[in-house]
Amino acid sequence: MHTVVLTKGVPDFREGQVSFDENGHLERGKTPTVMNPNDKFALEAALQTRVRHGGNVSLMSMGPPGYKEVLQEGMETVYADDLYLVSDREMAAADTWATAITLSAAIENMDEMPDIVFAGFKTADGETGHTGPQANWCLDMPLVTHVISLDIDEEERTLRAKRLVEGDIEEIETVEVSLPAFVVTDPEFVPSYRTAGERLTLKDLRAETQARAPDYEDYLTVWDHADINVDPDYIGLDGSPTIVSSVDPIPKAPAEREATMVDPSDTEGMTEVLEAMQSAVGGDATAAEGD
Q1: Chain-centre distance of CA 1, in angstroms?
Q2: Which residues contact 15 (CB under 8 A, 6 or more apart)?
Q3: What is residue 87's DSSP assignment?
Q4: For the segment 5-33, what is each residue's pLDDT rounded down to a tens digit?
Q5: Phi-psi region at 48: left, alpha or beta (left = phi > 0; alpha = psi -120 to 50)
Q6: How do the domains of the chain map onto residue ranges?
Q7: Of 100, 191, 194, 209, whose CB has the highest number of CB atoms within 10 Å?
Q8: Single pTM value for the model
Q9: Where are the beta strands (DSSP E) in 15-81?
């Protein structure tokens, strides 16, 4: 089974250093970036497929050169056999539609079409959830979204998945589609390794990918728009119909917080602390003190 997992770098909001240009566009090259958390569920699904059916897992992203480290993160923390980065200036400031066109063209440029394309459920920055389904529209595959578990019948060339109906954890349905297929995993996805053999294979594959990760560039292919044969007019900012009216910068957390030091032996000070805590939870400080 050859699977491709689509991922994206998102601002590491923990850093508090998100940078915007004068037009309100996020400057990804100047912003600390990590792998989109939801994409790791997609990568876990691809790893489960690799454990059960063998084959190859390719991890792909579109973005600036710094996204190489995002791909390395995916290889090290979950799994990847090889990496693909689609990157050049013509792709900058793309919306989800232009991104989908670029990624689908890159997938079609691979030596062979994958059996399954995986994508995560929406990104931590845009939160649209559009790119996966839009890329699937370009590829014209059966699409299954909000997937929480899956099984593959290699002989029948089918994929059976359990999915949340409209993202509702209380309502689950089972669907079956033919391969090749496109799968968008839900954050509720949990990989399953049913036998000791599968668990041993998982352990071996995790050790292999962690050994590869320091030399990830040996497994990396970088393509520009000419390599994947896309017209610059249809990608990047020029190919993006979305208009961003405004962007609110993310406020930086205060470096220090005010704190009042109270000695445990200071009865009056501890009483004030207790009263403040009881007030916050709606309790009775006097009753608590008597207890």
Answers
A1: 21
A2: 32
A3: -
A4: 999 998 886 655 677 777 666 676 677 78
A5: alpha
A6: 2-239, 260-289
A7: 100
A8: 0.81
A9: 33-35, 56-62
